[in-house]
């Protein structure tokens, strides 16, 4: 297969399915051959990311992802994506395993916030406990010269319930709970823009989009960037050159 990219997924599987559905539905097609070429690694056995980040006695998920990245690197994809925010805990280590461009969805999302909302100094963040605990998005937001708002003590249990007990455990999205989280972040904590720092939250946005709030969805952004790059490369562009603007070293 020529001109393909690799997707390191399975964290979780339903969220990865959402990313794939986005790229399949958003690319403009007139025939089968217009779809993108990609290889999906749905590694559902990767240990829980949040569990390890918060307690290093829990199974480390790095080696599983290392094997996935090295396995895909042997096939020579044009670029690699990993549609899981919390797994970016090991992004630098994983990207160093290969010279194939490895997109960082967190950095891409934060830079889009800066570009799309230049007048906003603060962004609300809802994410897994692991991402919050290790400052994954917080560091990227501060690096961009912006401030982050996490909301009060009541927000994280609501987010955790939506991510784990609804989507991961039951495979369903509680749209009312999702909308209530957004409402509280907007009305109670003054967040004009809210960043969805977990791909399960991206799935919630896909399935329950009818709300009045501005959200920044890294998975949706990554899908658009994936399409853009894949089509440019298909049309003859050099993969490393066109990916360079999204690497934000």
What report would you give on this structure?
- With 249 residues, the protein is an alpha/beta fold.
- A 4-stranded parallel sheet has the order 5-4-6-7. The chain has a 3-stranded parallel sheet with strand order 2-1-3, sandwiched between helices.
- Helix 1 crosses helix 10, helix 1 crosses helix 11 and helix 5 (105-116) packs across helix 11.
- The radius of gyration is 17 Å and the shape is globular.
- Helix content is 49%, strand content 12%.
List the helices and strands and how they pair.
Layout: E1 5-9, H1 13-26, E2 38-42, H2 49-54, H3 62-73, E3 80-81, H4 91-95, H5 105-116, E4 122-127, H6 129-133, H7 136-143, E5 147-149, H8 155-170, H9 175-187, E6 193-197, H10 199-207, E7 214-216, H11 218-234, H12 239-244
Parallel strand pairs: 1-2, 1-3, 4-5, 4-6, 6-7
Structure, briefly:
This protein has about 250 residues and is α/β, with parallel strands linked by helices. Helices cover about 50% and strands about 10% of the residues. It has 12 helices and 7 strands.
């Amino acid at each position: 297969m020529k001109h393909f990219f690799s997707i390191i997924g399975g964290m979780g599987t339903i969220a990865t399915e959402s990313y794939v559905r986005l790229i399949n539905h958003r690319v403009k097609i007139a025939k089968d051959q217009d779809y993108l070429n990609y290889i999906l690694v749905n590694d559902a056995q990767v240990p829980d990311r949040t569990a390890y980040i918060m307690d290093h006695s829990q199974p480390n998920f790095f080696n599983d992802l290392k094997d996935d990245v090295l396995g895909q690197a042997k096939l020579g994809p044009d670029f690699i994506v990993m549609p899981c925010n919390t797994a970016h805990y090991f992004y630098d280590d994983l990207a160093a395993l290969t010279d194939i461009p490895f997109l960082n969805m967190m950095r891409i999302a934060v830079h889009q916030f800066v570009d799309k909302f230049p007048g906003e100094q603060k962004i609300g963040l809802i994410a897994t406990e692991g991402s919050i605990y290790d400052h994954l998005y917080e560091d990227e937001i501060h690096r961009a010269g912006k401030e982050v708002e996490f909301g009060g003590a009541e927000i994280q249990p609501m987010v955790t319930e939506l991510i784990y007990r609804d989507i991961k455990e039951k495979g369903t999205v509680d749209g009312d709970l999702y909308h209530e989280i957004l409402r509280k972040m907007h009305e109670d904590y003054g967040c004009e823009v809210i960043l969805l720092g977990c791909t399960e939250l991206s799935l919630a946005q896909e399935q329950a989009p009818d709300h009045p709030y501005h959200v920044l969805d890294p998975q949706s952004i990554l899908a658009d960037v994936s399409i853009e790059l894949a089509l440019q490369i298909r049309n003859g562009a050099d993969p490393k050159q066109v990916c360079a603007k999204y690497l934000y070293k």
